[in-house]
């Protein structure tokens, strides 16, 4: 596509400048894509190496058990790999999806809201061209009327107002379109980086910035329509009569407000996209809270017991007491002179030693120990057990 160059004296109209910038941005994005991952791209070999490493890492994860070959884990990987390959190697798919959504999508939404046919940015710029031309003509007329006037004249205020209109509209819209074209030109690199979890944050930052730059013209057109509606009747009173300082000051103030609103569009869109996260990227807050949750789950439950003095102290858990009772039921070597030896049960606050029963009654004794363990599991805390004499 051959784009019309700028006039050496500068753009003659705002709509023409926007049209030329859009054409040049599209050509620059297509040229950058062909030099990156096109037929003779410089990064085609690097893309092959990156994809090979990705498949190798996934295979190593399967061999070592760190990854599972299931539908829930394999489907996102294959879909991400397929989308990255499609957008990084096919300019047709990249331009139809990325360029259309980011460059043409917001313009279509603005046209639908304003009820205009075609490009809303072009319609807004064409209307602003008429106001800009009327202000310039009024400034020339006021300059001829006040030939040798000193101080600030209506011609000076009208000239400043025309400069603010040009700076606020062309400066914001053209800057957003040029920056968006640069982000789209670098887009294939960030699309490839979205495959790896370690570099997925770069892709998220690129996508957030590209969406912000795409929404700036949308918000600038919607806000600019209001300022143009305020400026239209005031500029219409300048034609066909003597221009006083009050009229010129009104035009200058409205032009300054228009310039401030255009600059505010950047801040508003930046606030809208600042906290946005793509679905498959884990927020940093969740990554910091996950280890805490794991430690809380893995940490054993502890109970507090109250002594006679009322001072809280940590008591062994029910699981520890159960394990002590069940382990005590295991047969041990007897002492000399005893048929079955002895066994020792250690509970909080007391140690119980009893003779080991004969082998015929060992099974029933272990059963009673298991019943005792199940009962102790239901007790929240035991402060002390006193040994009673027969």
For the terminal residues, how far apart are their CA atoms? 107 Å
Order of helices and strands: HHHHHHHHHHEEHEEH
Q: Tell me how many strands there are.
A: 4
User: Could you give the order of strands across the largest sheet?
Assistant: 1-2
Structural class: mainly alpha
Q: Which key phrases capture this entry?
A:
single chain; 390 residues; mainly alpha; 12 helices; elongated
Task: Offer a quick outline of the entry.
It is built from twelve helices and four strands, in the order ααααααααααββαββα. With 390 residues, it is mainly alpha-helical.
Outline the structure in words:
It is a single chain. With 390 residues, this protein is mainly α. The protein contains 12 helices and 4 strands. It has helices at residues 14-37, 44-64, 71-89, 91-114, 120-145, 154-185, 187-193, 200-236, 245-273, 284-298, 318-328, 362-378; strands at residues 303-306, 312-315, 342-347, 350-355. The strands form 2 sheets. A two-stranded antiparallel sheet has the order 1-2. A two-stranded antiparallel sheet has the order 3-4. The chain is elongated and about 115 Å long. Mean pLDDT is 74; it is low at 282-316, 331-340 and 381-385.
